[in-house]
Amino acid sequence: MDGHSSHINMRFIDFCDNHSIILGILPPHSTHRLQPLDVGIFSPLSTAYSNEIDHLIQSSQGFSRVTKRSFWAMFRTAWKTALSFENIRSAFASTAVYPLGPEKILNQLKKKTPSPTLSDSEFNRKTPSSVRGVRRAVKAIRSETTDIALELDLIIRASEKLAIRAEILEHENIGLRTALVGEKKRRKKGKPMGLFMRDEPGQAMFFSPAKIATVRAHQEELEAQKEQEKLEKEVERQNRATQRERKAQEAQERRETRQRLQAEKLQQKEREKEARTTQKELNKQLRLEEQLEKDQKKQATIARKRKQEDPLLTEPKQLKTRVASSGRTVALPARFQD
Fold it and tell me: pLDDT tens for residues 133-149?
């Protein structure tokens, strides 16, 4: 088998181990030479199945087609024809797996020396390979030969047209080839197995019982590592959730603190406003008391002057008073006493 994970996994390895099958992993990009099925089985099987389909179409005059009901009968016949003992033994011999013969495959890989070819310098004239080259050759022929036959002129025109078509096709082929190479690279993105040798996952190997035990231990280690990573991610997720909750709580506390400070500031402003109002009332009351005291002194001065002027006057005149809006008794000015 090759070493891609789509073909080999632990379930397949366990099956081979339980049935005493030694699993051989081929080197990468070598199945077309070393895999017996690819070399000697699949091609005869495909040919035999195609023959069965041709026989069905010919015998039914083209009225029958391959259905799910007729597929297995034709494939079973093709399977018996292709997977015979002789074909299987020939496939193992062609790939030099059994009997073992590495030289047979190595000789196929040797590069053959190409046969020497004549270079352009050996010719008197270089064969034109572009439209410009063809036109130059036509000009050279016309300049050297004044009398050109009609048939030769037709051949010259046809060569110009063919050169133009060849250049257009070459341009299209380059684009298509680039697209095919890109598509081929995209489809060849396989995933190596990497169960035994992590550094070289695509190398050839044989899965013996000891290697299978190593692979199982490695799989258990990978599963434990995955579980550990899963636990770490869960802890990290919980830490992030805790951090989000702590940040939300801190934001709520800052918001409540800001609201409390704003409420205290409003209360402070209200208290200052009440204090200013009370101070104004007190100042107003003090001014009224000072005014009353001044009026009383003035009345006393007036009474002394009258007593000095009229000695017979012994009792001071009773001052008239009134009740102010603040509830205190205020003496009326002198001009309102009489």
Answer: 777 777 777 777 666 66
